[in-house]
Design a protein that fits this description.
Strand content: 15-25%
Mean pLDDT: 94
Largest sheet: 8 strands, parallel
Structural class: alpha/beta
Helix content: 25-40%
Number of domains: 2
CATH architecture of the largest domain: Alpha-Beta Barrel
Number of strands: 18
């Protein structure tokens, strides 16, 4: 049985290049992971993902639990077989979705009840009641068949009081201990007999002392990797940058470091890699693509030998719906090697497709943005390995 392991291959300053070994193949890091929440990366098929050179994708246990449901996934042999994707898959436990999606019903009453035992919530689809415990959330992921699973954590809003955030950190640790026991009782394998790695999640909002405490707690449980989550990471980039710089060096070199939800802008990935992180995911590249925002820019090496993302557009974002592109015969990005840029699709034509809401636009734009991010992490890896 292939077990999970992380092999560090090269280091340049704080930047790292490594390799994740999973039952469904290897993943070279640093890596951006496309998000396929419901077992599909929106508007793309598996052939598209192969051409993008995606090494690993994400699914979300909350959403997959509700649709298509665990019975369907188990009957078909897990998510890999269900969607015909035989490369690695990582699943989030659903903790973030329980606390962010199920906030209020149409009647205005709360859809979530949190106790030390677990979380009772109502489906955002039909209002039906469900109850997730740390064990249940992990069982869901065992049935989904992920190569890498996440513990069930309590997410607290950045606007919550420090007392409330501290309570979420405490509860996440208690839940993590229970998840660890359940994981070991199952032999660390999913229902299909494959090793399923488990990552701890560091909460704590914008409070560095709570983040350090949470990190120490997760490390004490000796999970296969450590992730940094919560509302802050990936949303408030000023604080995200501060957190990853402060905390990354506290994680042992032998563990992969995962910044959850980070990747709305290319520069975010560059800065996180410079801080020593290995794994990133975000719905941003595809969501932005569908809304007319395409990435443009390149890597530049500073006088100190550090990579820097540069672009003629603010945040490296081109708004294809802008009238200035109506006659522009250039590709989205002349340096990009994606299908959209290589096949003669001009900014003018994409502008036209976007304006008329042609379905092919969503595919072409998503291909570009995802390949842009995947190529960015590939180029960063080459800088580290070729040092």
């Amino acid at each position: 049985m292939t077990k999970f392991r992380f092999q560090l291959e090269a280091v340049k300053g704080r930047m790292r290049a490594g390799r994740l070994v999973t039952p469904h193949g290897e993943v070279k890091t640093p890596i951006f992971m496309p998000v396929g929440t419901l077992g599909t990366v929106k508007s793309l098929d598996n052939q598209d993902l192969e051409s993008l050179e995606a090494q690993i994708i994400l699914g979300n246990a909350y959403h997959l639990y509700l649709r298509p449901g665990l019975d369907v996934l188990k009957q078909t042999g897990g998510l890999h077989n269900f969607m015909g994707w035989q490369k690695p898959i990582l699943t989030d436990s659903g903790g973030f979705q329980v606390f962010s999606l199920a906030q209020a019903s149409t009647s205005g009453s709360s859809l979530v009840k949190v106790t030390d035992e677990g979380v009772e919530f109502r489906s955002h689809l039909d209002g039906s009641k469900h109850f997730f415990t740390p064990e249940k959330a992990l069982e869901n992921q065992f049935i989904i068949g992920a190569d890498i699973a996440m513990i069930f954590d309590q997410c607290a809003s950045d606007q919550a009081s420090k007392t409330e955030i501290a309570q979420a950190v405490k509860r996440t640790y208690q839940w993590a201990k229970r998840a660890k026991i359940y994981w070991e009782e199952q032999g660390r394998v999913n229902v299909y007999g494959r090793y399923q790695a488990l990552f701890g999640i560091v909460q704590g909002g914008k409070h560095l002392d709570l983040r350090r405490k949470a990190l120490k707690q997760m490390l004490s449980l000796e999970f296969d990797g450590v992730a940094f989550g919560g509302e802050t990471v990936g949303y408030d980039m000023e604080w995200s940058a501060r957190l990853i710089k402060e905390l990354g060096s506290l994680v042992p070199e032998s563990l992969p470091r995962y910044a959850m939800g980070l990747g709305r802008d290319p520069a975010n990935i560059v800065e996180a890699v410079k801080a020593g992180y290995d794994m990133f995911d975000c719905v941003g590249p595809t969501r932005l693509a569908r809304n007319g925002t395409l990435f443009v820019g390149s890597l530049e090496i500073s006088g100190q030998g550090q990579p820097k993302f540069i672009s003629e557009f603010k945040k490296g974002r081109l708004n294809i719906g802008n009238q200035r592109f109506a006659y522009d015969q250039a590709p989205v990005d002349s340096s990009c090697d994606c299908y959209t840029c290589r096949s003669g699709y001009t900014r003018a034509y994409l502008h036209h497709l976007y304006k008329i809401r042609e379905l092919s636009y969503y595919r072409l734009a998503s291909i570009h943005n995802l390949r842009f991010m995947l190529r960015l992490t590939y180029l960063l890896r080459r800088m580290i390995v070729d040092n």
